[in-house]
């Protein structure tokens, strides 16, 4: 897998990847998520490609206190071959280079396979509750 930074021409393939991996939800607009990411730490938005086709993604972030990883995805037919962990390690390396001391990330409590994946990669559950407030409504208002 070749890992590189996302470029605007990747958007269609990346959104298709997220859809195939079940990461798109009615209350998030993937196109807007991409546009916002390109305006903040775009170089932490990575894609993985095999034979010129995008088959993996990871959207890293760093706020000066904690790092984050969103949209970690590997196309189903390429899963369980080590690509997800390799991409996660690349985000970790880049965050470490920025001086980031810890990554906090969110996984839906119903997504036990992915929790197991992260635990296998050295992550542990923290005793915290994730609290959120939406500032900009996205997606289809009927499904929000
Ligand atoms: C999470 C995801 C990116 C993992 O990618 P992957 O390429 O399949 O993972 P890897 O092959 O690198 O797996 C690394 C380790 O995690 C383990 N693992 C991977 N998927 C697992 C699963 N479903 N259950 C248990 N362990 C799992 C692997 O067995 C491997 O351990 P090993 O080295 O001891 O064999 C991939 O499953 C995915 O795209 N899921 C759908 C999207 C998603 O939900 N993303 C997370 C959003 S929060």
TrEMBL record:
Pfam families listed in its UniProt record: Acetyltransf_1
InterPro entries: Acyl_CoA_acyltransferase, Bact_Acetyltransf, GNAT_dom
Keywords assigned: Acyltransferase, Ribonucleoprotein, Ribosomal protein, Transferase
Top-rank taxon, per record: Bacteria
The keyword Acyltransferase belongs to this UniProt entry's keyword annotation: yes
A GO term for molecular function: acyltransferase activity, transferring groups other than amino-acyl groups
GO cellular component: ribosome
N-acetyltransferase domain segment(s): 1-144
PANTHER family assigned: AMINOALKYLPHOSPHONATE N-ACETYLTRANSFERASE-RELATED, AMINOALKYLPHOSPHONATE N-ACETYLTRANSFERASE-RELATED-RELATED
Protein name per the record: Ribosomal protein S18 acetylase RimI
Origin species: Desulfoluna spongiiphila
């Amino acid at each position: 897998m070749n890992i590189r930074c996302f470029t605007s021409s990747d958007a269609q393939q990346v959104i298709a990847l997220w859809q195939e991996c079940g990461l798109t939800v009615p209350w998030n607009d993937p196109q807007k998520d991409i546009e916002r990411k390109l305006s903040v730490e775009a170089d932490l938005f990575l894609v993985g490609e095999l034979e010129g086709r995008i088959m993996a993604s990871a959207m890293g972030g760093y706020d000066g206190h904690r790092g984050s990883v969103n949209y970690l995805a590997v196309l189903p037919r390429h899963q369980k071959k080590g690509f997800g962990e390799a991409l996660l390690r690349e985000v970790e390396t880049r965050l470490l280079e920025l001086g980031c001391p810890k990554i906090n990330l969110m996984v839906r409590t119903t997504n036990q396979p992915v929790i197991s994946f992260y635990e296998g990669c050295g992550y542990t559950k923290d005793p915290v509750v994730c609290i959120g407030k939406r500032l900009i409504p996205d997606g289809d208002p009927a499904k929000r």
